[in-house]
Write a structure and sequence with these properties.
heterotetramer; A alpha/beta (290); B mainly alpha (244); C mainly alpha (302); D alpha/beta (313); B: 244 residues; mainly alpha; 77% helix; 0% strand; C: 302 residues; 70% helix
Chain lengths: 290, 244, 302, 313
């Protein structure tokens, strides 16, 4: 089964997003970067170390947070992360010290002494992140860190990922299929689907504004569309919204004047950003279920 | 409405006879039969040896292990990974589920425990002293008792197998030897009452007798019925929390 | 090469002191040996529930107590009655309680390895500078140590009891040391068997049942074979049956090489027997290790 | 047409109160049970599925108590959150087995209909163990539909699904709702709830925080200021003009930093208590002062903000 095929990309320091549907090859790529999965062809190097030959050296400097559950239920977070730090080569005293530090940074307070079996999804994700940071890596690979988190949890985790990339000075490669969040966090994005590279560019231009306006009025939107078309603006209704094809900046004023003229409320006027969602759905298409 | 549901039986058999567990279930009787064959080839029909083999190995080792594997395996895996929810969300009485699962487990123990004990017994001692039939019936009774008890354990606790082991190995055999009184609560001794009746006079001499009187049978039936009834009640209120 | 800390496009704070901020670590980073030792210590302690939730301590504590009870009683009797000999010999102590050892092994081997398989912890281990052979060696040593403790503690209590009863150390020590030597061998053999079986399935219940089934069947078959062999009148044949179960195998080796009198009667026949017993023991340990390395080479880290 | 009624339901485990005095009526259509992790959503669903008795209050389906009443499962289809299924069976065998467990008159036809409804016909002969997350979810839906129940309960159905799989499941739920079934699904992924739930029940730390259409919820919370982001070609002038009106309580000129996606630039944050009059006022004031409006975005209208507002309260 071709999980990842002829992918060529180089990832600069900072926070980089790896986007793809379930089964698009994200986890496979991460395992190859860790030197755990031999690439059938081609080569890769992480922090200057060749993946094929210098696996252990890479794994000493890299932190990995898997997407799937990986925490034993009968041990506490503190005990577990100390153990993991030692397995990364830290002596016991340093491991204990760094664990306390890292658990505080990821926001685990007094629950850290309870067995992890009773942890919520959010707390589990924090422990998984802590064990990836405990040995102070140069690079962390985070596989869908916000999986299963609610909005509050998601924002915390994304804030954390952002802090790791900036304040902690650790490079981050984070994967996700919830696209909105990568927009808010990453400096650059690599989009892969079915194991192939779709696009690799800085986040800014991936979500560049396109020439489409989305307008919503709180009443008489039919008349509103007529007013626009009679003012020479190409507009058509889309559900309770109105889509306007922007011919020039003048159209902004025509929208404003149409709303003012009819005395209706202008609830929404937005440039239809090329949301990553469309970018992601469009090329894959078809019924193939990843 | 019949007390047994064919689909539950088929699902249970499917999860009970998973590849690895089936291997283990088949290995046990296989060893018993090989052993009986070797013993027969080497020392011909020897009553004392046959009784020793049937009592200590067949009834003492193979049957409790089969009961453990079949009894816990009939419902344990489904509760452990949560797939029991597909049974619990059906308009099906919980006691029908438990009875069906018990019958599947007992069937396994009969086919892979009692029957091979009969064959081994015939191989070892022919039909003399009714040893073969006696121990086969004993194996069937003990097997049923073990299945009922261990199935209940699987509903009540996540480490049913370890607790079951502690009962079958430590309580029944180890403690049983040191403290004879403990044998009053041993399923094996209750089943031996049947064996003793079938073997008759020479049961004592051949070591096929039971340390408890015929009250043992009453206790055996009580355990089977009681455990099954209580397992049904507990299944009705089973909470699917996912803690380990 | 640590990337410089670029603080996004916000205004650059000059002179801000991140005192409780994230601190980098530039201390010592040890190699695979230290990693192996850390895994060994954690796993060995875990076999007695140390460092783990309370629930996991119950069963090991119960079994350890059950193992030590007869020794305590024996030591007490010796001390009180001032006997000049222990009521229970060192040599036969473990073999008489082999059921307890088997139950402990069957319960703890899955806790040691199946738990890592079931809860996906392998990917955390193998995403670290640790090879699969390190994992196998650490787990093997840990379980062997745990099983050894289960046997060594009661033997030591017996020794203490003997000394309390003013029995001369010179007399007690040789037997004690022979028994301890046999215990080490038995721990190595049992740990191998236990881990190989437990590593096959992530399901704890099935692992426990499988291990106890193997141990019981082996000792059952051995017992039966021995009875048959003695009836046929050939002591040697009875001796050879010792190969069938780990307990009798180690008892045979201890008998011939450590001079401990064999508990189960017929020891290995002749020097050939002794050599074969020793070879089988070594092969068993090496074989289990080899199987485990093969098994963990195939473990995918998802 | 079936209705699930929770009347003053509470549930505690020891001294932890998971659900606290919740009264809720769930009728036909698609209802989203919404709340942060640990808010008591799955406890509620467990009680509605009859797997957990309420510590106080009653949970009934068309008047029948759900606890220890196996017959109620003729009218309930449950899609559990856990992935565990009988992996050694094929998809078809699994759905058929569920049909037989219901003792339906014609299990084959029922299974056939259910598998086709979830569009899993092409993969039905493969073992369930080989299915992707999305396919497993659809087969679970099939097992819940096989006896054509009027009520469908789904526990976190969207968990871990990528957008494509989510869209397929959303269409399916919308279709179930349109057939008049009472569909209840729990989620904390708000995008889905917004798009398909006709009715929303919000639960926050065990309490029933809000119910009704989420826009209604929005209106109900009028006392909370509405936040707007406006970008124009003369923000400062627009700010002055807008402040003159009574509906606006606060205006703030902010520089939007380029974090990740958005470019830098300036914008106006407006807080208005009277939403309706502000949105009508804005275009008129801009027109009068000749200010070009580039962007008018309600900063707090998505369910996400409704939700975090309730959590914060």
């Amino acid at each position: 089964m071709l999980a990842v095929c002829d992918l060529t990309v180089d990832v600069a320091p900072g926070v980089v997003g790896l986007v793809g549907a379930n089964g698009a090859g994200k986890s496979t790529l991460l395992k190859m970067l860790l030197g755990l999965l031999p690439a059938t062809s081609g080569s890769a190097s992480v922090l200057g170390h060749d993946v094929a030959t210098e696996g252990p050296a890479i794994r000493q400097r890299v932190g990995y947070m898997p997407e799937h559950d990986c925490l034993p239920p009968d041990v506490s977070a503190t005990e577990f992360v100390v153990h993991m730090a030692q397995l990364s080569g830290l002596p016991r005293a340093a491991a204990r010290e760094r664990t306390a530090d890292v658990l505080r940074h990821v926001g685990l307070d007094e629950e850290r002494y309870r067995p992890m079996g009773g942890y919520s999804t959010g707390m589990r994700q924090r422990v998984k992140l802590a064990q990836a940071l405990a040995h102070d890596p140069q690079l962390v690979l985070l596989d869908e860190p916000t999986n299963g988190l609610d909005p509050a949890g998601r924002d915390d985790m994304l804030g954390l990922v952002r802090r790791i990339g900036t304040e902690f000075g650790i490079s981050v490669l984070v994967t996700s299929h919830l696209l909105g969040e990568l927009e808010r966090v990453c400096d650059a994005v690599v989009v892969i689907d079915g194991g192939q590279l779709l696009r690799s560019s800085a986040t800014a231009d991936v979500t560049a504004a396109s020439a489409l306006l989305v307008v919503e009025v709180d009443a008489r939107s039919g008349e509103f569309v007529d007013a626009l078309t009679s003012a020479g603006v190409r507009a058509h209704p889309a559900g309770r919204l109105v889509e306007v094809e922007l011919a020039g900046d003048g159209d902004y004023d025509r929208v404003r004047d149409a709303a003012a003229g009819l005395g209706v409320g202008l609830v929404r006027l937005e440039q239809r950003r090329h949301r990553m969602a469309e970018l992601f759905l469009a090329p894959a298409g078809g019924g193939r279920d990843a | 409405m019949s007390p047994v549901d064919a689909t539950v039986a088929r699902l249970t058999a499917g999860s009970l006879l998973g590849r690895r567990r089936a291997l283990l279930l088949l290995a046990l009787p296989a060893v018993l039969l090989v052993l009986a064959g070797v013993a027969r080839a080497l020392s011909g029909q020897d009553a004392e040896l046959s009784a020793f083999l049937l009592s200590s190995f067949a009834l003492g080792t193979v049957v409790p292990l089969l009961g453990l594997l079949a009894g816990t395996g009939a419902i344990g895996p489904e509760i452990d990974d949560g797939s029991i929810v597909y049974l619990l969300s059906k308009p099906l009485s919980r006691s029908v589920m438990v009875v069906t699962k018990l019958l599947v487990a007992v069937a396994v123990v009969l086919v892979l425990g009692a029957l091979p004990t009969l064959v081994a017994g015939l191989l070892l001692a022919g039909t003399s002293d009714g040893l073969a039939v006696g121990f086969a019936v004993g194996a069937a009774a003990a097997g049923t008792g073990y299945c009922a008890l261990f199935l209940l354990l699987a509903v009540v606790t996540r480490n049913a197998v370890v607790v079951g082991l502690m009962y079958a190995l430590i309580w029944e055999s180890l403690v049983g030897q040191l403290v004879p009184g403990a044998q009053a609560l041993s399923i094996r001794q209750w089943a031996l009452v049947l064996t003793e009746r079938i073997v008759g006079g020479r049961a004592e001499a051949l070591g096929a007798d039971s340390a408890v009187g015929s009250i043992g049978l009453v206790l055996l039936v009580a355990v089977v019925v009681g455990a099954t009834w209580y397992a049904g009640r507990r299944l009705r209120t089973l909470r699917l929390t996912s803690d380990a | 090469m640590t990337p410089d800390v670029q603080a996004g496009a916000g205004p650059v704070e000059s002179g801000a002191i991140h005192d409780i901020g994230y601190r980098h670590y530039d201390g010592e980073r040890r190699g695979r040996a230290a990693v192996r030792r850390a895994m060994f210590v954690e796993s060995a302690r875990g076999a007695y529930g140390l460092g783990r939730a309370g629930r996991t301590k119950v069963m090991p504590a119960l079994l350890l107590a059950a193992m030590c009870l007869p020794a305590l009683v024996g030591a007490a009797i010796a001390a009180l009655t001032g006997a000049d000999e222990l009521p229970i010999a060192y040599g036969g102590y473990v073999l008489n309680l082999q059921v307890l050892v088997s139950v402990y092994l069957a319960a703890q081997a899955p806790v040691s390895v199946s738990r890592d398989l079931r809860f996906g912890v392998m990917s955390l281990y193998f995403s670290r500078p640790m090879e699969r052979i390190d994992y196998v060696l650490a787990k093997y040593a840990a379980l062997a140590t745990a099983v050894l403790v289960l046997m060594a503690l009661p033997l030591t209590i017996l020794l203490a009891g003997a000394l309390l009863a003013k029995m001369p150390l010179g007399e007690q020590l040789p037997d004690y040391l022979r028994a301890m030597g046999a215990a080490v061998l038995l721990a190595l053999v049992l740990a191998g068997i236990g881990l190989v079986i437990a590593a096959v399935t992530p399901r704890r219940g099935l692992g426990v049942a499988a291990i106890i089934a193997v141990l019981l069947v082996l000792s059952g078959v051995q017992g039966a074979a021995q009875v048959i062999a003695t009836e046929q009148g050939t002591r040697d044949a009875a001796g050879w049956t010792g190969l069938l179960s780990p307990y009798t195998l180690v008892d045979g080796v201890a008998h011939r090489f450590l001079g401990q009198d064999s508990v189960l009667g017929a020891g290995p026949p002749g020097t050939a027997g002794a050599l074969v017993f020793a070879a089988v023991t070594a092969l068993l340990v090496a074989g289990c290790l080899g199987l485990l390395v093969l098994r963990y080479r195939r473990v995918s880290i998802s | 047409m079936s209705t699930l009624v929770l009347d003053a339901v509470s549930r505690w485990f020891g001294n932890v109160v998971a659900v606290n005095d919740v009264t809720m009526t769930i009728g036909p259509g698609v209802t989203g049970l919404l709340g942060p992790n640990g808010a008591g959503k799955s406890t509620l669903i467990h009680m509605m599925a009859g797997f957990l008795p309420p510590s106080s209050g009653t949970v009934t389906l068309d008047g029948d108590v759900l606890w220890r009443n196996e017959q109620v499962y003729r009218r309930i289809g449950l899609v559990p959150e856990r992935e565990a299924m009988y992996d050694a069976m094929t998809g078809w065998q699994f759905v058929l087995a569920n049909a037989r467990l219901h003792r339906l008159t014609d299990p084959e036809a029922a299974a056939r209909r259910a598998v086709d409804t979830v569009q899993m016909a092409q993969a039905e002969s493969r073992d369930v163990g080989t299915y992707s997350k999305g396919m497993k979810q659809r087969i679970k839906m099939a097992t819940a539909l096989v006896h054509d129940p009027p009520v469908l309960l789904l526990d976190e159905p969207f968990n871990g699904m990528d957008p494509r799989q989510r869209l397929q499941l959303m269409d399916l739920l919308r279709e179930m709702g349109q057939q008049g079934r009472t569909v209840l699904f729990s989620s904390h992924i708000l995008e889905e709830v917004e798009q398909i739930a006709t009715d929303v029940q919000v639960v926050v730390s065990g309490r029933h925080a809000a119910s009704g259409d989420f826009r209604q919820i929005r209106q109900l919370m009028t006392e909370r200021p509405h936040q707007y982001t406006v970008r124009s070609d003369d923000d400062r002038a627009l700010a002055a003009a807008v402040m003159a009106d009574g509906s606006v309580t606060g205006v703030e000129l902010v520089a939007t930093t380029a974090v990740g996606s958005r470019q830098g630039g300036r914008a106006l944050h407006v807080e208005a208590t009277d939403r309706a009059s502000f949105v009508r006022l804005l275009p008129q004031v801009a027109q009068r002062h000749g200010i070009r409006l580039f962007e008018v975005t309600p900063a707090d209208e998505s369910l996400e903000s409704v939700f975090s507002y309730l959590v914060a309260r």
